[in-house]
Amino acid sequence: MITDGLPDPATLNPLQLDEVACALCARLLEEIRQDRLIGRVEVGQGFRRRIAELWACAPTCAEAVRR
Ligand SMILES: [Zn+2]
After folding, report:
1. What is the C-alpha R_g of the chain?
2. Of the chain's two ends, which shows fewer C-beta atoms within 10 Å, N or C?
């Protein structure tokens, strides 16, 4: 469920952890989702722990993470 090789969630801002901004460059994501889901990370500690989805903006960062 957790994806390897993603940015450390401790270094990301709340928008990046809320699927609002690109996880790689912090640019706000477009409303029309051409953006790419790059994986999931676990954030928080203890009972506040949750899974956050990380998105990359298209085309800039999404191209960089294409596999
Ligand atoms: Zn980006």
Report:
1. 11
2. C
Q: Where are the domains of the chain?
A: 11-64
Q: Name the residue type at position 57.
A: C
Using the mean position of ligand 1's atoms as its centre, give its distance from the Cα of residue 66 in Å. Answer: 13
Distance in Å, CA 47 to ligand 1 centroid: 30
Structure-token pair, residue 6? 């993603």
Whole-number Å distance, alpha carbon 67 to ligand 1 midpoint, is 16
Asked whether the whole model's pTM tops 0.90, one would answer: no
Token digits of residue 41 = 């990370």
pLDDT, one tens digit per residue, over 25-47 is 999 997 666 789 999 999 988 99
